[in-house]
Structures are given as structure tokens and as C-alpha cells.
Amino acid sequence: MKFISWNIDSLNAALTGDSPRALLSQMVLDKIATYDAEVIAVQETKLPSSGPTKKHLEILKDKFPAYEVVWNSSVEPARKGYAGTMFLYKNNLTPIVHFPIIKAPSTMDYEGRIITLEFEKFYLTQVYTPNAGENLNRLEERQIWDMKYADYLASLDKSKEVVATGDFNVAHKEIDLANPKSNRNSAGFTDEERKGFTNLLAKGFTDTFRYIHGDIEGVYSWWGQRVKTSKINNSGWRIDYWLVSDKIADKVIKSDMIDSGTRQDHTPLLLEINI
User: What is the pLDDT of residues 79-100, one digit of tens each?
Assistant: First the structure.
């Protein structure tokens, strides 16, 4: 099966915008469509609490005619038009859709951060992990989230095999970002966040990119927009992942980044697995 995951950084902009960046996003969506994946996971949709508009759904249906769409948007008391996730899955599939509550701190459970698709033999779940924030003002809450989320994945793994994806907002090791020394203690590369990810993997999960590619360096999934040359110089971070239960790691065929051209920010991830 083929699965794709992408932090889109505003679905509305990608579908209806006409800025140069929006046009680049639309090109990435068109490229994703060519892979004919069984499931596409989308993070940071930034949709209103009511979800996609009629126009959004019409455009998605045009681009992805053979797919059903489910979403989880940020609702009160959380911020409006914030975070959010979405799945597109082939309409011949019949998963049970779950919107889990993991008893996360603050408003995190209301921010539309997790959707889980339950299939007969496995779970496919996606996450948009909370950022530790400027000045690490959300780091303490982020640490609690990491523990709660790790426990949630472990609970799934007890009953079925798990495939998990998303923007985990952490570069796990020094080889997962271009400039580890200068980014020490930056959001996404604190000891606490890295430890949280280590704890998650220790509960029985495999980072499929490292499983396939070993300690290869210089391959990233995100390049900051604030520095115009970040992608040209490949000054990136690998903060997006496909994880699987350890017991099915040997079924992974491919785990790669999909080239998003000159568009900075996140690039899509492809997983091929015999599941």
C-alpha cells in the first residue's frame, strides 16, 4: 500500500489562493495525486471549526475524485482556524474513523491534532504535534503531550499493528537537522522533546526513514520560510515521520521525501508498505 503525509500549512491557501506560494502548493497537491496512494494524511489544515467549505470539498473532489474526506478541526475553547488534520482515503476502503482524546494539557485536545483510521488488521493514525513555541513557552505542556501521545500509540499497538505519521515537530538526532549546534535548545530540538521522541520509539515503534536509509545525512522534510535561501542551501530539519510498529518494520518497502520543488516549509512523505 502507498501512503502519503504532508503538513500543508493552510488547506484554504493551497486550494483557493492565487499567490506564488499558493500556486506552488497547488503544484505539490497535483504531484501527490499522481502517486495514487491509498491514503493521504494532511496536517495544519487551519480550517474553521466547521471544517472545509463547500468550495474546498468541490476542489478536493476534482483533484482527488476517488477519495473520501474526513477532518478534525480546532474548536472552542481552542483557537479558531488553527492546527487541524485531514485524511483522504480511497473510496473502496471502509475504515472506522476515530477522533481520540488523549487527556492532553490546555486546549490541545480541542485543536484537531489527531485522526485515526481503523482497518481490519491495522491502525493508520496521524498527528500534528504541538510546537514548543517561541521562548519555549509551551515546552512543559509539550512534554506532557509527548507522554500522553506515546501512551496512546502504545495502547493501539496492543490490539493491532500501527502505522503513524505526521508533523512531530522534533528533530530526533543531530543528523536530522543541518545546524544542530546553533539550534541547540530551539523549539523542536530541545533535550526534552528529543527525549520524548526516544520514549515514543522505545514503546515499540520504528522510524521508517532511518530503517530504510540508515544514518544518511542531508535529507530533510522542512525548510524555514523566514530565510529565503534555506532550501537552496538545504538548511533543513527532518521533523515529519512515518512510524510503524516494530513487528511490521520488515514490511516497509519505501520511506522517502517527495520533492516539492522550490516551495519552502514542509515537503510530503511517501511510505510504501506490504500491509
Answer: 999 999 999 999 999 999 999 9
220 is catalytic: no
| Domain 2-273, CATH among 3.40.1190.20, 3.60.10.10, 3.40.50.2300, 3.30.1320.10 | 3.60.10.10
Annotated active-site residue 128? The verdict is yes
Distance CA 165, CA 38 (A): 14
Quote the CA–CA distance of 122 and 79 in Å, as a whole number: 32
Among 105, 65, 40, which residue's Cα sits nearest to residue 269?
40
Task: From the candidates 89, 128, 149, 152, give the one annotated as an active-site residue.
Answer: 128
In this predicted model, what pLDDT tens digit does every residue of 225-255 receive, in sequence order? 988 999 999 999 999 999 999 999 999 999 9
Look at the block and give the residue holding cell 480546532: 74
Cell triple for residue 248? 511490521
Instruction: State how far the Cα of 29 lies from the Cα of 56, in Å rounded to an integer.
Output: 13
Neighbours of 232 (CB within 10 A): 11
Q: Which entry of 9, 146, 157, 167 is annotated as an active-site residue?
A: 167
Whether the full predicted model's pTM is greater than 0.90, yes or no, is: yes
